[in-house]
């Protein structure tokens, strides 16, 4: 146990927690935006896969980080557009479309990889680029905290910045308000003349963009290049994180960090010979418990509110 | 200043026939009529939710084309629906300015939002905390927010659809004060309601609709409630029902002191009691929304009871499951047939079969006896004259009348002792309706006790042996012999104009 | 049945157009990507027919996909988006393996018991999301996805730590005893006794859905839960029961796949059969009697893609793209709705 604590307090470990949280956070924020507009985005996994693939290849071929990033975003948007088209226009059940697109992306990415690079496993043939690490002056001089907070990848800072951006978008802009209205009461939205479909489409596009950044981090952040199966369920974990975060940006960030923590811990525990399978399942367990707890709280507050109204009338 | 709004629709669906409806500026104008009289349709057309088949709308001398609620809003019409269109998690000011947020930039300044909302609130002398969340507000306050929403968008004409249906007396008083204030500021209000007392209190003129036509426009001061009631409730179709009087059997269903509170915490039934005997048809008369739905739903086991007792064939069924209640011998034709009465995606046969899963002719130890079921459903189809080529046809392909016949066939084919028929002939053609009537009488002659609800007064009067009138969640009249009361008299009770004394009403508990 | 009514006719058209589009898409992709497109296409569509062994592969895969499809069809018939069969497949396979390794039993009894146990495990797993939804209103989609991972990691823990064969080069259990394996019934292929079991299961499911009271009530509940309550159906019991049955079938599938096709249990991640089951169920319109056809179709193109991959320069993963497109098109309710309108108008006109 002592060993464990020392490991956890190590600044390197805490640094890695933030690193590992990054893709989760992007995807969880993506889910937050989509769910708030009532357009569930189950295809996060698929979006991240395509974004990771396209980004790696793009940066490798063009030798430009910017182009790589644009390619990553395009890859993710392909999936988002398909989801929107089938879910909003052709009226395929949006959850089913999400599931279908995930399997499409999972296999399709390997296929494209092979077609473009003749390698079914990864992009190792290419020299892929990564986003730079950023050292924050002054902060990096702080003992312990400095090592944790400074020197993270650029995308990590962007991810945490996005928490504020999403918050601002949803709660401080007109369009965010309209999105939330569409998600909570589409009839009310229609009655004031809002175009429900267009707003849902907008939400899915923003969601796709965020998730693409998450995918981009996987292949262009800490590690360079795409390899098969690298997303490994993060898209689904992100759904859980957003659910646990009650679809609100800051709690979602906390939930994502919890998951990231569990992920980082499992690496250490492997060294301590605690089986990593057992550690890996903790985040999922925590989500289910969280879901239960939050629905209990919600129904409890409903009952309280009813009593309040009853006593008023 | 007087300004005429004219609306002419010849033959707008069957809902509005040649309706010329006009309202003067600055007045509170009541629009009344029974359910199905056409007033909701008329207002939907004005607000752009529906389009008239023919006819036109003039406002301030100009002809208007209204294709959607957005157009109506732009012209200055505002509608407060019965079901509020509010976002619960947002604040009052957010809801008021929804869709037309102030400021040209893409940002929201919540202070400006609150300011704008406060301006409107103060202008009309409402008293609401702009920062309060809708989910914390009472129904009365929520309605005020809806009104403010319409006012914020510049509504000069406000349409209120049954505004007091969900308000407490206190809230109603407050609402009326607001309406008077609005009128003083030059707004025009169209007030859709059944509540004659309120109309008398606050409205200037009244337009009465019946069966899709406008039967009269009067100054409220120039007509009595009796006269209004008479005009609303005139004879429609002549239901001549051949019915031989039967002797009332023993008590089948006892309801004692039943109180039901709905989801909005509104008491829709207050300590009602009555008995239903076998071999009778007891009609429950009332304007929709006065508690009759909750009454039959609680008997059928579909609604939770707050207090009281329901006893069917000497067995208490307050908390029994629907399955148990049906097993005891109850059949139920639901009022909302498309929501509950059928499974849209299933076949006719499946819909017929759904309540017969314990029938040994059709099921053998949990297995469907396909051949017998096929024969049985074909027999039912022919007996009830359902227009379909085979029982395997999906029920959604049938016309409304035929769908109702399937429901009726299902519910009547069980030899039940107690039948609840909630609007059994609503929206179906005369032929089918008469058929259903005959079947009901047949069952009653064989000993069944029938609880009948209908919005059509002449139907329920001619079909029922006895009548109970319900108003505001309580019984206000009981007539042992339905023949001994006129429709006009019934109307007065239905609208709360009159009430029998307690002793007379209590006879229904015999 | 003299007249095929309009709706069915339209559904058939829509289905066929969807499949045709998907096939055309595969044609285009192959053309673009391959230096030997026509060989690739030939292998894709005809590959499985080349020899008995290849065709056997189709049947073997179809067996597992049928279990998956049946499981999801029953679960989705109750209108629940419960994806726990994915985890159920894994867990039941693992537990069956652990069972037969721990309790050596004679020939027929061993696999029989193992399959039953696998089924029970599957049933328990799939019921959990339904219970969570009933009691706490938790989304069955999210909870089932999470449960899949939990179950997998738990099972994997036991497999990798208590049953791992140290002599084996990769992560796998000890070799499963011969007595527990399902016998091979068609020599020259790997088709095992599971084929008989799955045919039997399909038959039972068809009878259940079409001929029993419970199946009838399940269908009505899934189509309109308010209606079901109104006619007196105990909807929560029916829903839980359907998830349990679906779970049991998925569990059987996992056990049978393990005992029939492998000599060790070696899955290190979720096999994906749960999602495949969704594809099969959608194609089969949730009807058990069509599941074997849909499973066969899916298995056929998968094996065809494998053959194409080994013989040409097109990798098998392109099938994933086709699959995704097929599901979305088949399940698209507004797909071709304009055409439908035109056909409807024409029909009404013709009927006067």
Question: Overview of this structure, please?
Answer:
- The complex is a heterotrimer of chains A (313), B (510) and C (352).
- By secondary structure, chain A is mostly helical.
- Chain A has one domain (2-231).
- Chain A has helices at residues 2-9, 11-36, 44-62, 65-89, 94-117, 145-149, 154-172, 174-184, 186-191, 196-220, 234-244, 249-271, 276-312.
- In chain A, helix 3 packs across helix 10, helix 7 (154-172) packs across helix 8 and helix 11 packs parallel to helix 13 (276-312).
- Chain B has 3 domains: 4-232, P-loop containing nucleotide triphosphate hydrolases (Rossmann fold, 3-Layer(aba) Sandwich), CATH 3.40.50; 236-329 and 416-510, P-loop containing nucleotide triphosphate hydrolases (Rossmann fold, 3-Layer(aba) Sandwich), CATH 3.40.50; 341-415, no CATH class.
- Helix content of chain B is 33%, strand content 23%.
- In chain B, strands 6-7-8-3-9-10 form a 6-stranded mixed β-sheet, sandwiched between helices.
- In chain B, strand 14 and strand 15 (315-316) form a beta hairpin.
- Chain B is globular.
- Chain C is an all-alpha fold and 352 residues long.
- Chain C has helices spanning 6-33, 37-46, 52-77, 85-102, 109-136, 140-162, 194-211, 213-223, 225-230, 235-261, 273-283, 291-311, 318-330, 337-350.
- In chain C, 55% of the residues are buried.
- Classes of the chains: A mainly alpha (313), B alpha/beta (510), C mainly alpha (352).
- Chains in contact: A-B, A-C, B-C.
């Amino acid at each position: 146990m002592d060993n464990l604590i020392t490991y956890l307090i190590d600044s390197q470990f805490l640094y890695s927690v933030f690193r590992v949280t990054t893709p989760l956070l992007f995807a969880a924020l993506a889910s937050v935006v989509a769910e708030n507009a009532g357009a569930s985005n189950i295809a996060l996994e698929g979006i991240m896969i395509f974004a990771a693939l396209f980004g790696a290849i793009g940066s490798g071929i063009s030798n430009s980080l910017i182009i790589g990033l644009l390619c990553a975003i395009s890859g993710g948007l392909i999936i988002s557009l398909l989801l929107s088209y089938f879910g909003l226009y052709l009226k395929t059940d949006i959850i089913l479309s999400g599931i279908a697109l995930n399997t499409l992306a999972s296999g399709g990415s390997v296929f494209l990889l092979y077609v473009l690079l003749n390698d079914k496993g990864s992009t190792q043939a290419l020299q892929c680029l990564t986003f730079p690490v950023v050292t924050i002056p002054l902060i990096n001089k702080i003992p312990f905290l400095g090592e944790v907070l400074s020197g993270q990848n650029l995308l990590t800072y962007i991810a945490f910045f996005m928490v504020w951006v999403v918050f601002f978008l949803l709660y401080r802009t007109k369009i965010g308000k309209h999105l939330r209205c569409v998600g909570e009461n589409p009839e009310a939205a229609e009655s004031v003349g809002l175009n429900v479909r267009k707003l849902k489409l907008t939400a899915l596009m923003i969601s796709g963009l965020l998730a693409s950044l998450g995918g981009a981090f996987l292949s262009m952040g800490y590690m360079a290049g795409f390899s098969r199966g690298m997303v490994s369920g993060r898209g689904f974990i992100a759904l859980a994180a957003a659910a646990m975060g009650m679809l609100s940006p800051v709690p979602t960030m906390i939930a994502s960090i919890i998951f990231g923590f569990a992920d980082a811990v499992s690496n250490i525990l492997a060294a301590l010979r605690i089986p990593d399978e057992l550690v890996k399942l903790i985040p999922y367990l925590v989500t289910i418990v969280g879901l239960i707890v939050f629905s209990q709280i919600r129904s409890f507050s409903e009952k309280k509110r009813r009593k309040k109204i009853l006593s008023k009338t | 200043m007087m300004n005429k709004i004219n609306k002419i629709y010849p033959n707008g669906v069957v809902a509005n026939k040649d309706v010329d409806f006009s309202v003067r500026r600055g007045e509170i104008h009541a629009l009344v009529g029974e359910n199905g009289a056409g007033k909701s349709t008329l207002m939907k057309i004005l607000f752009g939710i529906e389009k008239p088949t023919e006819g036109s709308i003039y406002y301030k001398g100009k002809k208007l084309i209204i294709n959607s609620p957005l157009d109506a809003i732009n012209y200055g019409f505002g509608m407060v629906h019965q079901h509020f269109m509010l976002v619960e998690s947002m604040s009052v000011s957010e809801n008021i300015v929804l869709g037309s947020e102030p400021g040209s930039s893409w940002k929201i300044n919540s202070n400006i939002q609150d300011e704008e909302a406060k301006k409107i609130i103060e202008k009309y002398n409402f008293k609401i905390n702009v920062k309060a969340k809708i989910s914390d507000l009472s129904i009365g306050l929520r309605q005020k927010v809806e009104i403010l929403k319409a006012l914020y968008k510049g509504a000069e004409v406000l349409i209120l659809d049954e505004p007091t249906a969900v308000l407490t007396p206190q809230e109603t008083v407050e609402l009326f004060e607001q309406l008077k204030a609005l009128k003083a500021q030059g707004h025009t209000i169209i007030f859709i309601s059944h509540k004659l007392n309120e109309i008398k209190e606050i409205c200037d003129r009244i337009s009465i609709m019946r069966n899709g036509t406008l039967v009269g426009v009067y100054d409220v001061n120039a007509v009595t409630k009796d006269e209004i009631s008479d005009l609303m409730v005139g004879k429609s179709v002549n239901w001549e029902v051949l019915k031989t009087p039967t002797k009332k059997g023993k008590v089948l269903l006892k309801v004692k002191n039943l109180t039901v509170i709905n989801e909005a915490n509104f008491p829709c039934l207050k300590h009602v009691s009555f008995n239903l005997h076998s071999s009778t048809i007891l009609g429950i008369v009332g304007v929709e929304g006065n508690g009759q739905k909750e009454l039959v739903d609680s008997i059928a086991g579909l609604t939770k009871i707050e207090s009281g007792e329901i006893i069917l064939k000497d067995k208490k069924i307050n908390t029994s499951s629907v399955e148990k209640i049906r097993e005891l011998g109850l059949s139920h034709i639901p009022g909302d047939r498309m929501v509950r009465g059928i499974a849209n995606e299933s076949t006719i046969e499946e819909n017929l079969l759904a309540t017969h899963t314990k029938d040994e002719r059709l099921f053998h130890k949990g297995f469907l006896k396909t051949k017998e079921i096929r024969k049985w459903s074909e027999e039912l189809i022919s007996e009830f004259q359902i227009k379909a080529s085979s029982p395997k046809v999906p029920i959604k392909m049938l016309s409304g009348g035929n769908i109702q016949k399937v429901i009726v066939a299902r519910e009547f084919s069980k030899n039940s002792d107690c039948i609840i028929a909630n609007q059994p002939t609503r929206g179906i053609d005369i032929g089918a309706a008469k058929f259903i009537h005959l079947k009901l009488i047949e069952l009653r002659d064989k000993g069944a006790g029938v609880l009948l609800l209908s919005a059509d007064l002449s139907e329920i009067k001619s079909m029922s042996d006895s009548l109970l009138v319900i108003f505001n969640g309580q019984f206000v009249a009981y007539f042992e012999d339905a023949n001994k009361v006129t429709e006009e008299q019934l109307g007065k009770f239905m609208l709360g104009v009159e009430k029998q004394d307690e002793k007379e009403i209590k006879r229904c508990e015999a | 049945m003299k007249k095929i009514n309009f709706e069915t006719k339209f559904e058939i058209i829509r289905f066929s157009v969807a499949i045709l589009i998907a096939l055309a898409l595969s044609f285009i992709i192959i053309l673009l990507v391959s230096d030997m497109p026509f060989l690739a296409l030939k292998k894709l569509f005809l590959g499985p027919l080349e020899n008995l062994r290849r065709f056997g592969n189709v049947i073997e895969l179809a067996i597992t996909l049928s279990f998956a499809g049946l499981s999801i069809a029953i679960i989705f018939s109750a209108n629940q988006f419960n994806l726990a069969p994915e985890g159920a497949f894994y867990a039941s396979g693992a537990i069956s393996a652990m069972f037969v390794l721990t309790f050596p039993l004679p020939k027929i009894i061993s696999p029989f018991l193992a399959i039953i146990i696998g089924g029970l495990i599957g049933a328990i797993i799939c019921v959990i999301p339904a219970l969570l939804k009933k009691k706490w209103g938790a989304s069955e989609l999210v909870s089932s996805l999470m449960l899949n991972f939990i179950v997998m990691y738990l099972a994997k823990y036991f497999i990798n730590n208590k049953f791992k064969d140290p002599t084996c080069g990769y992560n796998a259990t000890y070799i499963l005893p011969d007595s527990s394996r399902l016998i091979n019934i068609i020599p020259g292929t790997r088709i095992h006794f599971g084929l008989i079991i799955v045919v039997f299961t399909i038959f039972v499911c068809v009878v259940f859905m079409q001929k029993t009271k419970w199946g009838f009530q399940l269908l009505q509940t899934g189509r309109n839960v308010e209606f079901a309550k109104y006619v007196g159906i105990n909807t929560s019991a029916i829903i839980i029961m359907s998830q349990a049955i679906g779970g049991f079938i998925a569990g059987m599938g996992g056990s049978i796949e393990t005992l029939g096709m492998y000599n060790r249990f070696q899955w290190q991640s979720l096999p994906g059969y749960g999602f495949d089951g969704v594809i099969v169920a959608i194609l089969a319109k949730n009807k058990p009697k069509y599941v074997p056809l849909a499973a066969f179709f899916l298995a056929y193109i998968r094996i065809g893609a494998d053959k194409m991959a080994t013989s040409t320069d097109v990798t098998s993963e392109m099938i994933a793209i086709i699959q995704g497109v097929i599901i979305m098109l088949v399940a698209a309710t507004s797909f071709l709705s304009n055409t439908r309108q035109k056909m409807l108008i024409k029909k009404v006109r013709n009927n006067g």
